[in-house]
DNA sequence: GGGCGTTATCCTTATTTAAGGATAGCGATA
DNA sequence: TATCGCTATCCTTAAATAAGGATAACGCCC
């Protein structure tokens, strides 16, 4: 038995969460949405739709696109995107810690004896 | 913008969460799975499958069934079911409080100015 | 101007999950 | 023994979500 959870920002639907966070991290490392998606086992298709959708809900762009060019193009995380990404990074870690504590407090004993 | 989340116990899939909790509460009040389901807008079908599935995952019964009888039958929450229900009640409340605090801490400022 | 890899879309097909209808069986009680 | 409301299932349909193929456009660079 263990605790499971999902946490996300909501504004007319999911506006930011684990998926977008991982995607932004990958873009940051690779300079490419396509590569970032491949890296986390997500189809480019899905990744593209995801970023597009949540940008619409957030109301500001998370990445700056470069279509064409010597390397074919690429994407970089915007400053607001980076700010959100960094905040979420700390937030998710603190959430993880506190939820583990609460689980232990309320259910640890109940499910340890089995 | 606001925080959204789901928290549940997992053992070979969802083993307990908000849905089952509300269902147990309803059974406690009504003495009937059917009435409890109707009360929270869930079909009896779905409710029956839900209870059955999570009982399998938990490994112990949440309710005791009475098939037939003067009133047609009914269900009552078992003692272990009640224990789980009560623990979850407090757990979920503390989760709510702490997640609200963390959201405020990390995103309150970011999304207040808009 | 041709090549290349990326972004930008569209569209079709699976897969999963939700919804709901239908029906049998049960057993205390009147 | 007939009634009544509930549990126990099965089965079909609908809806939402995921998966993935296909293709156009773009623009630096050789």
Keywords, separated by commas or semicolons:
homodimer; 114 residues; alpha+beta; Arc Repressor Mutant, subunit A; two-stranded antiparallel ribbon; 4 helices; 19% strand; DNA-binding
The SSE string of chain A, one letter per element, is: EEHHHEEH
Biggest sheet layout of chain A: 2 strands, antiparallel
Termini Cα gap of chain A: 10 Å
Percent strand of chain A: 15-25%
- Report the strand count of chain A: 4
Summarize the structure.
In chain A, 61% of the residues lie in helices and 19% in strands. The first copy, chain A, has 114 residues and is of the alpha+beta class.
Description:
The structure is a homodimer of 114-residue chains. By secondary structure, the first copy, chain A, is of the alpha+beta class. Chain A has a single domain (11-112), classed as Arc Repressor Mutant, subunit A (Orthogonal Bundle), CATH 1.10.10. Helices cover 61% and strands 19% of the residues of chain A. Chain A contains 4 helices and 4 strands. Chain A has helices at residues 18-30, 33-39, 44-58, 79-112, and strands spanning 2-10, 14-16, 63-67, 73-77. In chain A, the strands form 2 sheets. Chain A has a two-stranded antiparallel ribbon with strand order 1-2. In chain A, strand 3 (63-67) and strand 4 (73-77) form a beta hairpin. The longest helix of chain A is centred in the last third of the chain and has 34 residues, at 79-112. The N and C termini of chain A lie close together (10 Å). The mean pLDDT of chain A is 94. Chains A and B meet through strand 1 and helix 4 of A and strand 1 and helix 4 of B. Strand 1 of chain A pairs antiparallel with strand 1 of chain B. The structure holds a DNA duplex (30 and 30 nucleotides).
């Amino acid at each position: 038995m263990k605790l499971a959870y999902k946490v996300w920002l909501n504004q007319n639907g999911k506006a930011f969460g684990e998926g977008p966070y991982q995607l932004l991290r990958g873009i940051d490392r690779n300079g490419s949405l396509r590569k970032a998606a491949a890296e986390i086992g997500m189809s480019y298709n899905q990744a593209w739709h995801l970023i597009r959708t949540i940008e619409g809900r957030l109301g500001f762009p998370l990445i700056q696109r470069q279509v064409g060019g010597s390397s074919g193009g690429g994407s970089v995380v915007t400053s607001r995107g980076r700010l959100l990404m960094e905040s979420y990074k700390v937030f998710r870690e603190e959430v993880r810690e506190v939820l583990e504590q609460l689980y232990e407090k309320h259910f640890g004993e109940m499910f340890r004896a089995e």
